[in-house]
Design a protein that fits this description.
Length: 86
């Protein structure tokens, strides 16, 4: 599956705990990554500085659904279900 144009849900909804260029401490869930351009495309896609987490998150029908709203809700729910208990 190809990424949906102008979506960026996977770069907004989940938290990322590793450094991202421009976000040295990663990013919290629900915060737009600074590496998204004005059309919600990753500016570091395919580059070595892209976090491993991002490369491992591949678009699929279950996650992406029919629209960005579905993807945001799916990823937000996944964030809650995988958050470690401290």
């Amino acid at each position: 599956m190809q990424c949906r144009p102008n979506c960026g849900a996977c770069c907004t909804a989940p938290s990322i705990n590793s450094a991202i260029p421009g976000m040295p401490n990663g990013k919290p869930a629900g915060v737009r990554c600074v590496q998204l351009d004005s059309e919600n495309r990753c500016m570091i896609f395919g580059k070595p500085e892209r976090p491993d987490f991002c490369g491992g998150l591949q678009p699929n029908v279950e996650m992406c659904g029919e629209n960005r709203s579905h993807a945001m809700h799916f990823l937000a729910r996944l964030e809650v279900l995988t958050k470690p208990d401290f």
